[in-house]
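Retry 2 of 3 after timeout on previous attempt. Resubmitting structure tokens to design endpoint.
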């Protein structure tokens, strides 16, 4: 099984061109499944539906959340579909097995006042403040995931036209930038970034004080610092800014399909969770809908 898994991982990386985060997720799920198969002295190619139900029950018993179990099942299903295609197994033991029902949690959202308070904290008095101001404004203006933001290169932003091109795996989407975000981003690019970077070959849009690409941990620390400066009691993460972006657009009348496109959701059901926050009445497009546009 180990050999087949390695071939599958190579396929995901080279042919499907999955991101490193997604690839690592597949590896964790399938390595755990492999250990279970070995411990129970079973042949992966002869696993039955009953065996698969047993594995899912095992995951539940060791405290895995329904969302985690659902992801594990999806990873295993992808592996067996790959094996079927390559004639290494005769059947897919996950066929007909339903994913556990996942209760959609209400996303944590900041009020417009809390957002304003948070974004007021970075001061344009030094290079770090200019960068942080641009970064927080950008995160709230685009609703992009933290991985997407730190992966951006300078060339992905069009400051003249006011938009950013977000590239993930084999997809890309274009997101407009509001006036406030564009102003802060221009100031960062024009006055701070060139001073922060050590090498002219650095492509990253957002860099740390050492001139290298900003990391996820660095992004989180910056948000935590300004949350404390603003004396906001709610827990704030990059994803809370993403939730707030979507919620505030919807509350101000933006179209759900447009929000889906900007968030990069492949399925609109993922976007519909924000419907519970919708205020009836206003029906405007992005620049009228976004509080800081």
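Retry 2 succeeded. Sequence:
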């Amino acid at each position: 099984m180990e050999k087949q898994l390695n071939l599958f991982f190579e396929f995901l990386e080279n042919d499907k061109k999955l991101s490193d985060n997604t690839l690592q997720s597949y590896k964790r799920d399938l390595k755990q499944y492999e250990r279970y198969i070995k411990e129970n002295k079973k042949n992966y190619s002869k696993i039955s539906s009953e065996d698969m139900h047993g594995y899912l029950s095992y995951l539940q018993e060791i405290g895995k959340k329904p969302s985690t179990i659902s992801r594990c099942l999806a990873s295993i299903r992808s592996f067996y579909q790959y094996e079927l295609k390559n004639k290494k197994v005769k059947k897919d033991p996950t066929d007909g097995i339903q994913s556990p029902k996942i209760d959609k949690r209400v996303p944590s959202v900041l009020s417009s006042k809390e957002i304003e308070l948070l974004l007021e904290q970075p001061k344009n008095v030094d290079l770090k403040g200019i960068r942080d101001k641009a970064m927080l404004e950008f995160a709230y203006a685009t609703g992009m995931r933290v991985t997407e933001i730190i992966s951006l290169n300078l060339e992905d932003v069009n400051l003249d036209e006011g938009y950013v091109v977000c590239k993930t795996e084999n997809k890309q989407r274009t997101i407009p930038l509001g006036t406030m975000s564009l102003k802060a981003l221009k100031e960062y690019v024009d006055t701070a970034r060139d001073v922060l970077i050590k090498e002219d070959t650095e492509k990253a849009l957002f860099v740390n004080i050492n001139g290298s690409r900003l990391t996820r941990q660095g992004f989180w620390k910056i948000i935590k610092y300004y949350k404390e400066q603003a004396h906001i009691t709610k827990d704030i993460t990059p994803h809370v800014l993403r939730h707030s972006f979507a919620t505030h657009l919807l509350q101000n009348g933006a179209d759900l399909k447009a929000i889906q496109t900007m968030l990069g959701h492949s399925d609109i059901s993922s976007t519909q969770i924000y419907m519970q926050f919708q205020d009836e009445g206003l029906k405007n497009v992005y620049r009228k809908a976004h509080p800081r546009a």
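Attempt log closed. The chain is about 55% helix and 5% strand.
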